[in-house]
Specification:
mainly beta, Immunoglobulin-like, 11-stranded mixed β-sheet, 43% strand, binds copper (II) ion
Length: 178
């Protein structure tokens, strides 16, 4: 009887683990594992939105995120944001973003991000936004961005505290030359 109970308990534990990983929505593409795809709701009239994913390279060769596309956006760019002497700047990475072997690259507010330009409709909290990522080696990968609230700092369920990237990302491209 005792053994039966122990077996049952571990079965429940296992079921819990499986549910958790299903929610994390890991997408495998070649040597890459892509997870935590999310974005923020856009306030009324905004024509740009961010896009965030975590990309792990489990392989032995570097790969590179070179482009993206989305039905909801006229075009998708890969951006880098950095703060230099207190001034926040954003630039498009024309050559894409290297994903070194054995490394995990996290696109997140305040750092690397996808920029959804020329939005055709606002991003609404709770929606899922299909985006296609293009990698040099892994090819095209479809992901779905979970739309979080306007001020969200991470995907649903992620800790909001202890994150070093607490700066606001206004998505203001007025400083960018076009
Ligand atoms: Cu940007």
């Amino acid at each position: 009887m005792k053994r039966l109970f122990a077996g049952l308990a571990s079965a429940i534990l296992l079921a819990g683990t499986l549910t958790a990983s299903a929610q994390a929505q890991e997408i495998k593409a070649g040597d890459l594992v892509i997870s935590q795809a999310w974005t923020r709701a856009t306030p009324g009239g905004a024509k740009v939105g961010g896009g965030y994913v975590t990309i792990e390279n489990k392989g032995k060769a570097p790969d590179r995120l070179v482009a993206g596309s989305a039905d909801v956006a006229g075009r998708v760019e890969i951006h880098e944001m950095a703060t230099t002497n207190g001034v926040m700047t954003m630039r498009a990475l024309d050559k894409g973003l290297a994903i070194e072997p054995g490394k995990t690259v996290k696109l997140a507010p305040g750092g690397y991000h996808l920029m959804l330009m020329e939005l055709k409709s606002p991003l609404k909290q709770g929606d899922k936004v299909p985006v296609t990522l293009q990698f040099e080696k892994a090819g095209k990968v479809s992901v779905s961005l979970d739309v979080q609230g306007v001020g969200a700092q991470g995907p649903a369920g992620a800790a909001e505290h202890g994150d070093k990237m607490q700066m606001q990302e206004p998505h203001d491209h007025s400083g960018m030359k076009k």
